[in-house]
Amino acid sequence: MPSHPSTRRRGAPPLTENLPDPSCADADPEVAAALAAELRQRQGSLAMTAAGQRPLPVPPEHAALERLADGRAKALFDATFAHVLPATEVPAHQLALLALLAPHDTVLCLDHPFGGHGVRSALAAVPGRPYDVVPYGLRTSDGQVDMAEVARLARAHLPAVIVVGGAVHPRIPDLAHFRQLADEVGALLMVDMTCFAGPVAAGLRPSPVSRAHVVTADLHETLDGAGGGVLLTDDRHLATRLASIAAAHRRGGLPGQLLAAQAVALRGATSAAFRDRQERALRGARILAGRLLADDVAETGARVVTGSTETPLVLIDLAHSVPAAGRAGERLRSLGIRPHTTGEHGLCLGTTALAGRGFDDASFRAVADVIARALPPEPHVVTLDELGARVAALTNRHPIAVSAEASRATQAP
């Protein structure tokens, strides 16, 4: 008879093995102490909350972890207030918009192909809360944000919130100009620094917090394995609104282990190794952009959006290219490269994860050449086989580091 779906698989660890690991005491004593207190509280009580029940007030042990993670985020990103979101089901930028907007408010943000898709998706996911989204685009001449057009739209529509940045935009916004415009039209300025949160954490880019009313970031693949996100502000009133909306959208209580992972990752972002990784990611993105600007790629119709990059990603516009973005993405995935398709014609290639695997400039040049040679309309099958072999060689040269426990789990029967 087949087992019930909830039956623990053979070889899976018992539930007690999922409790906080005290072995982090030497690496991070503050987190270890908070985890030990949480473990004592859990072992000394019987949890009988029902599945799907709304979260209870934050217990003292979790509150200690939350304060620790928030404090480290404040120091790392130079903010007066921070709220860490451990593996939240609701993205940081969506929570911020929910906190800042009232029904029928207008939002001014980047157009869909260049970073605005996150804002549009976030607002479309809110039932019964209609918002007006006004997109601004990039200049066709150089691919930069057209600030004259942004100013015209802001004065015409009087948005409640102006959003800059995004998860897939390759440039650092002109925050001084945007803030001046926001103040002129009475809008709040929100910066989604997802695409450059790593360099900011490493001290390679200035923090945008002092220029913005609210800053958000999705930290997946930015910090070491922690995921989640962060909300930042220097405004006490806005901080209260952000914390309130985050608590209202919390799922399944406040997971102490995830908060602990965030706290440890935020501490790790102050290390020289983290800074080196971010430097290599930035160099890798510039190497990739440079290769994709070469004549053989230009002949395919592919265009590097903004002409280069200031963040650890490159955005390619394939609107006038054969193959189109979807087909180009499929071809790269068949070679073992996993890009992100954005909009109908965009292909986003990030370098942070590869830097985490130890990629140096030579390896970035190699993968950049593979991508460039895969973009022509009909590459020869022998060429594709050769490119696939080059990708396989790179994966073997740069294995993913895994813990001993994770390694054992992958080998369990």
Spell out the CATH superfamily of the largest domain: Type I PLP-dependent aspartate aminotransferase-like (Major domain)
Query: What do we call the CATH topology of the largest domain?
Result: Aspartate Aminotransferase, domain 2
**How many separate domains?**
2
Mean pLDDT: 84
Question: How many individual helices?
Answer: 16
Percent range of helical residues: 40-55%
- The H/E string reads HHEHEHEHEHEHEEHHHHEEHEEHHHH
Low-confidence stretches: 1-20, 404-410
Largest sheet: 7 strands, mixed
* CATH class membership of the largest domain: Alpha Beta
Distance between the termini: 20 Å
Q: What is the CATH architecture annotation of the largest domain?
A: 3-Layer(aba) Sandwich
Shape: globular
| Quaternary form | single chain
Rounded Rg: 23 Å
Give me the secondary-structure category. alpha/beta
- Beta-strand portion reads 5-15%
Summarize the structure.
The protein is about 45% helix and about 10% strand. The chain is an alpha/beta fold and about 425 residues long.
